[in-house]
Write a structure and sequence with these properties.
globular, two-stranded antiparallel sheet, DUF2252, alpha+beta, six-stranded antiparallel beta sheet, 404 residues, 45% helix
Amino acid sequence: MMSSKNQPTLPDQRQAVLSQRRNLKMAESAHAYVRGSTVKFYEWLEQSGGKVPDGPPVWICGDCHVGNLGPVANAKGNIDIQIRDVDQTVVGNPAHDLIRLGLSLATAARGSDLPGVTTALMLEQMIEGYMMTLDGDLGGETLRKKPSVVRVGMRQAIGRTWKHLAKDRIKDIRPTIPLGKRFWPLTDDERAAVEDLFAKDKVRRLVTALHSRDDDGRIELLDAAYWVKGCSSLGRLRVAVLLGVGEGHYDEGGLSLIDIKEAVQAAAPRATKNGMPRDNAERVVTGAQNLSPYLGDRMRPARLLDRAVFLRELLPQDIKLDFDHLTREEATRAAFFLAAVVGKAHARQMDEATRKSWRNELARNRTKSLDAPSWLWSSIVDLIVGHEAAYLEHCRRYAERPDA
């Protein structure tokens, strides 16, 4: 008999639990609060005194914190460090990604008890790494020199197999999803909608794209569950789907885990003339294809229960990098490298003249004491102050009183 904690949680009953979980998660650390407060970031950025230049309109991440950068595998199994979460992507100002990344790096440095001067050094390295990708080779040599925290993550990603992914998310490497804290049962209507979705050809082709699977191969929906995952996205529709593909369900390549995630309007400001798809799921997938091709090639837009959703097949190599404990040298090298990753994602969308113009803009507004644009420094300092105060207030309300 199913235990009480595994009883179906209806959609209208989920929000209170998810809201509480989101609030507690954001109270775990200042960096967790920064990662989970995308909307506030843009509200405060608009109010700050930093005069942010208008960069060339390109697809930007929109939520460019360090947790959203890491190893990503493509359909052929190749691995690269790219942007790994594009829910907030828009055609917008690339300066916003720089500021968001700088704020995230600065907060991570404070969490590692690094001295304040490290923040200035990180911003200098960040802008240098970003600008190098605006040269002709898109930072090819720069991106080959990975800092230790990235090399460790790459080694872990390369060594991971389906069994590791199954251990993380699937019960005993058998074709069931374990219900409990992270996975909740679906309602009958939700289950039926998922089954209908995977009967469509374009969704089937996403599943068969990896590992040279046969397009006409058998696809069986083995299990599905509501997925309680993320921070700022908690509360949106999210479903994990376990599929059997082909004849061998249990050997590697015979199982497929699909992440279905609701796409909502982005918080990031968008360029006036942007040419973006009106559908939010189409926007997310198009942004991924431009910013992070390895990820974009594994995604498809769809509709589920009259909501815009995007689908992504999860791979074992998709992991987060660990930035919780950094030395001063690791922090500055990571800032240089991660900014280069973001710079490459932006630069590949620009022609040579646009890259040169944007590079010249970033080289302006330096001071004798800081080899980085003054607007970048002032924006991040203002945002650190605002986020710190808001984080402490958030903790007062939620961390000590979980039932609030």
